[in-house]
């Protein structure tokens, strides 16, 4: 089994190294299939490991010792338990689908082999993160996924918008990572170890420790909040969410991988892994709950006004990450991981379906230039419909079970802030259903608005639409060198549609098939710790009578009818009365402007942080460079030396009588001093 443990991360790593170094030599096809085989081998090994763990054979051990510094021993090791293997299956399956999809999507890109090398390295980094048994290895995987995401978001590095986006993602994550490493530093300072098992065992004995130098904060609250700040960066929680929508500058396959199974889920996994620490601090749990609730509701609002098909899905990711975070805050860790799993499938499905549409329309992403695609792309349409139903939380699709479980858990919680969180997640249901089907109807229903077909808009309105699109700074995929204008769109090739179908299947069945073991069984065992006073999932178990009664109960719950209301509103706005959105925008122009500008978060960051940094730089340049260095150190020292030189030069006149006079005066001074003495 230890060999299989090593195979899981090393297979994608070896494939990445080989393709990265020798990809152009071995060819595009060989490079693609080598990376696919690497991830497939990792996925197959994960299945075997999963069955072994289900049989009760968990593992926590070191692979090798990296370094020893005094009493601190740093090792590379693996923690293989139910939480780990759940993540391994999700990460590897979604990554495998993305790898296969990439064959078709990136077929004409000159960076084909480089892209495969990057996504395999990205998979390796995430696998190392979830398999780690200590904080240092966790931090390695944490930083590695951040680094590779920087490379992938800016994959088309000749475009200024891509460079801006990857730099923005890198800097936003550095802010979160600063808090994360502070939390790890506190763990090392007070626990004397970075090993999970040691830290978790000692945590209860340090639960009452306070930090007098930090305003008498409790140690556990400080550690958990610092760790969660790291999760806020990786999982794009408010206010560190700004990087995620701009990550759409990367190719669609990496958008799916980042948003569905890697990077953004790292923060959710980390908090669940740290449940033995978070359960000792109600303050930290309340902080997590409030941040998650704000993200779930207010990021959903932004999805309503987006016209870029990928950005709609991106803002839905932000909102769904908020749901997971709220679940973590109310100690429903198993519900958070359950939603992480179902979300990974239907979110990857939606992104890859969006990519299929983008290919068919020759890399067009504006929903206002789509419409009527369902008759041209039936497979893409059906799979996108499945993903939208799952995202909206309609039974019996997967998203219904996981999202409804979170909402029920929040309603039973007593963590401070749970009332606001309940209102937020409940309101988010309506908004999510609305923007999900808005996207579906604009892309696949209604009149055909794409190039070469009859449009319902007049030429003047088309010109305004194009101008507004050009000024919106929305992402656009790298142009396809083989794209041609005109001609009806057609269904994507099998390398794109097969991953869509394979992702649609778990988007349908994973909810009712896995809710009982993951939430009400012993799926996670001891890998998740919940304090008895926070056992909201255990309370839900008393009302569990099977998947069918759960669905029947859901059909009369407010959650279901809010979702139906959201879909009905989307039908009215975009099918029955397409002029309605324009009237609503005109009536609520200030609100629309606020949403269209994304709450002015980017402008504030540009003005305050970027502009402030530039102002500090200019001030430092003026004071430090011109005043201190040039004015004081260089020119000032020169003037000082010149002054003393001029004064001393007066003594060296060259006249003999001057020297004689000085000698006489000196003799009298010496005689006087000697006489007085």
Overview of the structural elements:
The structure is a single chain. By secondary structure, this protein is mainly α. It has 27 helices and 4 strands. The strands form 2 sheets. Strands 1-2 form a two-stranded antiparallel sheet. A two-stranded antiparallel sheet has the order 3-4. The longest helix has 51 residues, at 601-651. The termini are far apart. The relative contact order is 0.08.
Chain-wise SSE layout:
Elements: H1 2-26, H2 28-54, E1 59-69, E2 72-80, H3 82-105, H4 112-131, H5 135-153, H6 160-191, H7 196-202, E3 210-211, E4 217-218, H8 219-234, H9 243-246, H10 252-260, H11 264-273, H12 275-278, H13 282-304, H14 309-329, H15 333-360, H16 378-392, H17 398-412, H18 418-444, H19 459-471, H20 494-520, H21 536-541, H22 547-555, H23 558-576, H24 580-587, H25 589-596, H26 601-651, H27 656-676
Antiparallel strand pairs: 1-2, 3-4
Helical fraction equals over 70%
Q: Tally of extended strands?
A: 4
Look at the helices and sheets and give the structural class.
mainly alpha
The main pleated sheet reads as: 2 strands, antiparallel
Write out the strand line-up for the largest beta sheet, numbering strands in chain order: 1-2
Characterize the overall form.
globular
Radius of gyration: 31 Å
Q: Mean pLDDT score, rounded?
A: 88
């Amino acid at each position: 089994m230890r060999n299989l443990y090593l195979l899981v991360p090393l297979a994608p790593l070896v494939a990445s190294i080989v393709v990265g170094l020798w990809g152009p030599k071995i060819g595009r096809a060989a490079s693609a299939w080598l990376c696919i085989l690497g991830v497939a081998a990792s996925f197959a090994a994960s299945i075997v490991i999963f069955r072994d763990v289900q049989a009760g054979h968990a593992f926590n051990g070191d692979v090798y010792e990296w370094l020893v510094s005094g009493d601190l021993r740093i090792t590379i090791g693996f923690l293989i338990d139910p939480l780990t293997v759940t993540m391994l299956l999700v990460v590897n399956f979604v990554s495998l689908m993305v790898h296969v999809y990439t064959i078709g999507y990136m077929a004409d890109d000159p960076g084909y082999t480089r892209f495969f090398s990057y996504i395999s390295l990205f998979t390796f980094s995430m696998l190392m993160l979830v398999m780690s048994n200590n904080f240092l290895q966790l931090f390695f995987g944490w930083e590695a996924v951040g680094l590779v995401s920087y490379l992938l978001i800016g994959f088309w590095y000749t475009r200024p918008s891509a460079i801006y986006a990857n730099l923005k993602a890198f800097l936003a994550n550095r802010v979160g990572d600063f808090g994360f490493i502070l939390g790890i530093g506190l763990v090392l300072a007070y626990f004397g170890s970075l090993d999970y098992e040691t830290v978790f065992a000692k945590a209860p004995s340090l639960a009452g420790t306070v930090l007098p130098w930090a305003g008498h904060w409790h140690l556990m609250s400080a550690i958990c909040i610092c760790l969660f700040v790291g999760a806020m960066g990786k999982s794009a929680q408010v206010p560190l969410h700004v990087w995620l929508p701009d990550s759409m500058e990367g190719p669609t396959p990496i958008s799916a991988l980042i948003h569905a199974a890697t990077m953004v889920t790292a923060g959710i996994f980390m908090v669940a892994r740290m449940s033995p620490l978070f359960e000792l601090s109600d303050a930290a749990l309340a902080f997590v709950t409030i941040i998650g609730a704000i993200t779930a509701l207010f990021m959903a609002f932004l999805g309503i006004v987006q016209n870029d098909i990928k950005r709609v899905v991106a803002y839905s990711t932000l909102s769904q990450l908020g749901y997971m975070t709220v679940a973590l805050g109310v100690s429903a860790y198993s519900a958070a991981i359950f939603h992480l799993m179902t979300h990974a499938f239907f979110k990857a499905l939606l992104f890859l379906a969006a990519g299929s549409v983008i290919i068919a329309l020759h890399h067009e992403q504006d929903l206002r230039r789509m419409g009527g695609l369902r008759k041209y792309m039936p497979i893409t349409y059906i799979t996108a419909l499945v993903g939208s139903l799952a995202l909206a939380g309609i039974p019996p699709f997967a998203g219904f079970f996981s999202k409804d479980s979170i909402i029920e858990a929040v309603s039973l919680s007593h963590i401070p802030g749970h009332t606001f969180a309940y209102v937020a997640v409940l309101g988010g249901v309506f908004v999510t259903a609305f923007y999900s089907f808005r996207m579906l109807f604009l892309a696949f229903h209604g009149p055909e608005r794409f190039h070469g077909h009859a449009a319902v808009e007049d030429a003047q309105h088309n010109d305004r639409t194009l101008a507004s699109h050009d000024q919106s700074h929305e992402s656009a995929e790298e142009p396809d060198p083989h794209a041609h204008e005109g001609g009806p769109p057609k269904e994507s090739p099998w390398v794109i549609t097969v991953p869509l179908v394979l992702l649609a299947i778990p988007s349908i069945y994973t909810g009712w098939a896995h809710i009982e073991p993951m939430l009400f069984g012993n799926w996670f065992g001891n890998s998740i710790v919940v304090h008895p006073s926070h056992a909201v999932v255990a309370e839900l178990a008393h009302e569990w009578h099977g998947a069918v009664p759960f669905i029947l109960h859901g059909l009369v719950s407010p959650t279901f009818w809010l979702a139906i209301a959201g879909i009905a509103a989307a039908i009215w706005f975009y099918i029955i009365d397409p002029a309605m959105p324009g009237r609503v925008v005109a009536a609520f122009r200030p609100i629309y402007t606020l949403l269209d500008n994304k709450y002015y978060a980017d402008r504030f960051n540009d003005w305050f942080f970027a502009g402030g940094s530039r102002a500090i730089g200019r001030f430092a340049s003026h004071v430090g460079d011109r005043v201190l260095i040039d004015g004081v150190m260089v020119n000032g020292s020169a003037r000082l030396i010149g002054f003393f030189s001029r004064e001393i030069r007066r003594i060296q006149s060259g006249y003999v009588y001057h020297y004689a006079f000085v000698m006489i005066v000196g003799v009298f001074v010496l005689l006087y001093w000697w006489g007085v003495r």
